[in-house]
């Protein structure tokens, strides 16, 4: 079944909202990551977790151990946080990951918000 990009984004946000409704704010990022992965699987979505991000420097791969939290349906980068506030460094991280992974869309989600929709940022390039 082919899912269009906006549908992937909407379905991903729906999964995250379900996790947030169940758990609430205030837990560690790892708890949200594990539960969000489970929600993706329950909904039959194609998802990769903790995806290595290649860093090339002057045509040579450099092992830097960067990892993307999720890549959903091979097209959407999802980075999750559980922090007091999203900082510019988090946004820069997402933009750089998108570039390195050659992806055109990403979601940055901060689960440490009373209402998750207030903690979601969408990035397009």
What is the gist of this entry?
By secondary structure, the protein is of the alpha+beta class. It has 3 helices and 7 strands, in the order ααβββββαββ. Helices cover 38% and strands 28% of the residues.
What does this 3D model show about the protein?
38% of the residues lie in helices and 28% in strands. The mean pLDDT is 94. Strands 1-4-5-6-7 form a five-stranded mixed β-sheet, with helices on both faces. It has a two-stranded antiparallel ribbon with strand order 2-3. The longest helix has 19 residues, at 5-23. A hairpin with a 3-residue loop joins strand 4 (67-72) and strand 5 (76-81). The radius of gyration is 14 Å and the shape is globular. It has one domain. The chain is an alpha+beta fold and 125 residues long. Helix 1 (5-23) crosses helix 2.
The coarse silhouette is: globular
What is the H/E order? HHEEEEEHEE
The DSSP helix count reads 3
Q: Main sheet?
A: 5 strands, mixed
Strand content: 25-35%
- If you average the pLDDT, what whole number results? 94
Structural class: alpha+beta
Numbering strands along the chain, what is their spatial order in the largest sheet? Answer: 1-4-5-6-7
Helical content, roughly?
A: 25-40%
Distance between the termini: 25 Å
How many domains is the backbone divided into?
Answer: 1
Radius of gyration: 14 Å
Question: Which features would summarize this protein structure in a list?
Answer:
single chain; 125 residues; alpha+beta; five-stranded mixed beta sheet; 3 helices; 28% strand
